[in-house]
Write a structure and sequence with these properties.
homodimer; alpha+beta; 32% helix; globular
């Protein structure tokens, strides 16, 4: 018996779903669809499913699960430069999750609806014998034809990220007991980055007209950069020395330098990764972003270490399959 | 220890989710949301999640699972009078469902995309340790302000359904081994009604400007009629003698009259239930619909039997919780 190779998510999409995609689907490469809205606008539609023990832990606080569910979707809207409008919510819950759980979950939704100016538009509630499975489909608006896409960058563009990288991946390690830290504040900060990503909505909207390509980092910097490069038909060089790191992450790295793998390949950052032509550098210097490398001809993604030599990358990002 | 009463789906929605609903959500009473589209149109958004062993059986053919998933959503669009445009698809699949399953599943999607003139717009694919969990969010268009709603009917309106009732419920009984039939054709017809509902899209669009309220029947006639009456603030009387029944269902009823419960309360019909003023009767006589009763003042739903006396109704429809 020869084991059948498993297809990863991107191979599945390319093989089975891309042939079904129509106008507005952006060939299923952008984690979002565009349909015409009222005069001069387009709607951005994006959807994400999260599953207990895959995307969140069974004992995560229900309000924070709700917030994370909304935020991972809002992060996709941010990556398109969209202004969020509302969302549909599908819940598949085991019977063990009763009114008390739901009340906390709904409180998390309410908190983030206020935070991000969105409303609930619809949804579906079903029971499941399996893990909690939650889907949000988020809707936002962009000026017509102006949505940021993953395609569009070219050799010579600068490569940028927002915020800092790797914190969420370390937060997850702490929750799983794989990383010890004696500092309660450090533990708290990193876990918060895992549980409550910050969708970069304001930044995304400011990047309209500046960025030549953009996406959010959910599967890890290197894996997602490879997706952006695929969509644009280019390669990229990342200078590891330039990667923006939080004080908490610098402290953790001092204790264990191998944690750099979590910066390059850990998921759940939900920062924006984008490109812009050299002429945009001055405008971008006023925004909370860091230039980490540049777009090159070819198709390779290379990370250069401190010595200017390519780093061997042991991760392809989070894969479901 | 006192057992906590479980909340049913509608109580959950009213208590936890309705307070979160915004403009366009139709108070979460319509299984659909409306947002403005290009000049003179609105988009109808609707979403349904189906779970293995709840909404379909583990060994149902994958292509038919895909078709049912699309059709239950298209049925919601039909109930709004919408023209379908496209859909987003979220799959949560156990690792045991590999390329062979997905290939058949995608073939079912392709078949119905062609059948109903829709395209795939986006989605998400994740792995789950639990049952197959599938979500479709469907998008259609209606002329602005013309969508059929569950509210809007009043006392004196006639009550109508499309097609025939109860077939799908009997099909499910056959698949579960709860109903025997010696006729292969009868078995095949009823099972097909369970596995492949027929969204009444053409009818829905023709009902714009005629129907005063509409919905599709997914949880059973009586339960769904109660929802329509709730949304409109009215009651209704159904004349059981007038219920449209297929030849297969009549044959089954002759053998077991108690199966009438499947006509009144069995789910999965996906026929349209709607109301119209008496003046519309002539127009409606040219459509594949049957008048089954009328809207009344009050809030009660009553079913009259052959003797003109109220039938005791032992079902409240399918409930997930």
């Amino acid at each position: 018996v020869v084991a059948k190779p498993r297809l990863d998510e991107f191979e599945r999409i390319a093989r089975f779903f891309a042939p079904l995609a129509g106008k507005g689907a952006l060939e299923l490469k952008d984690d979002a669809a565009l349909i015409d809205g009222p005069a001069g606008t387009q709607y951005v539609l994006t959807t994400d499913t999260i599953v207990e023990n895959v995307h969140f832990l069974a004992d995560d606080p229900p309000d924070q699960i709700a917030q994370k569910l909304l935020r991972v979707n809002l992060s996709d809207l941010a990556a398109k430069g969209a202004k969020p409008l509302g969302y549909l919510l599908n819940t598949a819950l085991p019977k063990s999750r009763g009114a008390a759980w739901l009340e906390k979950f709904a409180r998390g939704l309410a908190t983030d609806q206020k935070e991000f100016g969105i409303v609930l538009l619809g949804g579906d509630s079903v029971a499941t014998a399996g893990p909690i499975t939650l889907t949000v489909t988020a809707i936002g608006t962009v000026p017509k034809g102006k949505a940021l896409l993953r395609s569009g960058t070219r050799a010579g563009d600068g490569l940028y990220v927002s915020g800092t990288l790797g914190d969420a991946a370390l937060g997850l390690k702490i929750l799983k007991g794989e990383l010890k830290s004696r500092s309660p504040k450090l533990r708290r900060d990193l876990v918060a980055r895992y549980r409550l990503p910050e969708p970069r909505l304001d930044l995304g909207r400011r990047l309209i007209g500046i960025a030549t390509a953009a996406m959010d980092i959910s599967d890890g910097l290197v894996a997602d950069l490879a997706h952006l490069c695929d969509a644009s038909g280019v390669g990229a060089i990342v200078d590891a020395e330039k990667l923006p790191l939080s004080p908490a992450l610098r402290a953790a790295l001092r204790a264990d330098p191998s944690l750099i793998a979590s910066v390059l390949g850990g998921g759940d950052d939900y920062e924006l990764l984008f490109t812009a032509p050299p002429g945009a550098a001055k405008k971008l210097s006023r925004l909370p972003v860091t230039e980490i490398g540049r777009i090159e001809a070819g198709r390779d993604v290379t990370v250069l270490g401190r010595d200017g030599q390519p780093v061997k990358i042991g991760t392809r990002g989070y894969s479901h399959f």
